[in-house]
Design the sequence.
């Protein structure tokens, strides 16, 4: 028997719970509890309340999910990086 496909949803983190779990409000209006996926734990990606995330869920249990991606914040076009810090990924040469 083939494994069922996972369903992906986007949502907003509303609350941080103990044990790397999060309460997420899905765009569809449902509220679920999600945990951090292995790749996000391995790469130490931090998630805060108010972050947009992508959730992966099994079609059998629609109350729990796995947080697989944190969307980057989009800055306004006029925003500049902090003063005194080099642009990310570049080093100062002497």
Sequence:
């Amino acid at each position: 028997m083939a494994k069922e496909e996972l369903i992906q949803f986007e949502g907003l983190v509303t609350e941080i719970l103990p044990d790397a779990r999060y309460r997420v409000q899905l765009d569809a209006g449902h509220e679920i509890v999600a945990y951090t996926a292995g790749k996000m734990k391995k790469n130490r990606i931090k998630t805060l309340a108010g972050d947009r995330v992508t959730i992966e869920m099994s079609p059998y249990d629609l109350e729990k999910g796995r947080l697989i991606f944190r969307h980057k914040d989009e800055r306004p076009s006029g925003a500049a990086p902090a003063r005194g810090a080099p642009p990310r990924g570049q080093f100062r040469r002497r």
